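Re: beginner question about structure tokens

> Can someone show what the tokenized structure looks like for a real chain? I only ever see the sequence side.

Sure, here's an example I had lying around. Input first:
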Amino acid sequence: MRIAKITATTVTTAALALGLAACGSSEPTPTSSPDAAAASSGPKYAGKTLTVWRLGNSNPAAATYMEELNAEFTKQTGAQVKLEWIPWPQVADKFAAAATGTGPDVTEIGNDQVPMWQSQDALTPITDIARDGERAQIPQNLYGYETVDNEIYAVPWGAGARAVLYRKDWFEDLKIEIPKTWDELVAAAKKIQSEKKGVDGFAFNGGSDANHLLAAFAWSEGGEYAVKEGDKWVGKLTEPGFAAGFATYTSLVTDGLSSKANLTHDTTHIRTRFANDKVAMYLTAAWDLSGIEEESKGKLKGDKIGFFPLPAKSGGVAPSFFGGNDIALWGSTQQADLGKEYIKLATSKTWADRYAKEGGLLPVYPDTLAALNEDPAQGPFAQAFAKAKAFPADPNWSEADATKAVLQNAARDVIEGKKDAAAALADANKELEEILNQ
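And the corresponding structure tokens:
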């Protein structure tokens, strides 16, 4: 799932929820950065026009950001920018049409969409600029989706992560401290369940986005879904690390923290139950806050709910799925050099930090991200994102994840007693390999 799917109607809410205030005119100008200096090609590009796509609907903060970014680009290169906003419901169709016809020169793109469009030859490699200049500071683990066959097809621009949303008011009433370990989280869940009947202490996610929760447990134990060996994907679901994380995942139901009646619920269903006092904790992101306020008819707001990082069972903070938006060079562009100059400027530290802050996202530069760690609103996401990872970067992953629900079915088989964990994971591993290697 594309975590950074923040549209015009939700960007303000998301930004407020994360405590991310828009930057003002006091922002330092990017002209002094190494990337800005490198992008200065002067009159070489005078008279040229670059087409740039942004995804979603424009909003005041995003519009101002793009105006200032494009003005700086024109100042440095002499080229003009034709900016087009593509509403989210139209993105798939627009990309599909552009893949066989005329597209942009540069486009924003959801990070998990990179492998699919790369497989359609819709993206141009930008390996030569992706890790140069200030971009060398962006952690290598954030290039999981962007790297295909040792070529980089997009640069991370802004990111998102998940953390545990919890009933702060219940914790306060029952004098429960924010859990720092998995054992403390389990104890908190059970204490709430003992006082509030019919409540999931920690909701099991077995729906379309189930792997966001399962992955956090598996990755924290050192597990992987699959690894590319040569030109073939090799499943790793039966190895000890993944098996340990899978056991923690299924234990949410087998140990009674979550009801067996809700095995197929995804985050949307869980959010509704949370809003109706049926869930104490679940893994999600800030975009759920507005829906919860609406579905609870205003009863659940910021004073009654909050976030904390998901603890790993083996200790520390569990990794989060690295969701977010990238910027890429379109496959059919006739202005690759000019497009690369735009990407270099947009992903320089100053402009990338602004993109994240003003869009309600997390920054991809480590020092800016680290500065958020102690912030009450942003800290839980920053801590999870610091260890973020991606699912297998293969265009067929969505079939295994959502269409065939390989791991969701394996978990249900175990929880319902149809298979033991070893057999369920062995079968799932075989199916996952078959799908990824199609």
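Each token stands for a local structural state, so reading them left to right follows the chain. The domain at 163-319+396-436 is CATH 3.40.190.10 (D-Maltodextrin-Binding Protein; domain 2).
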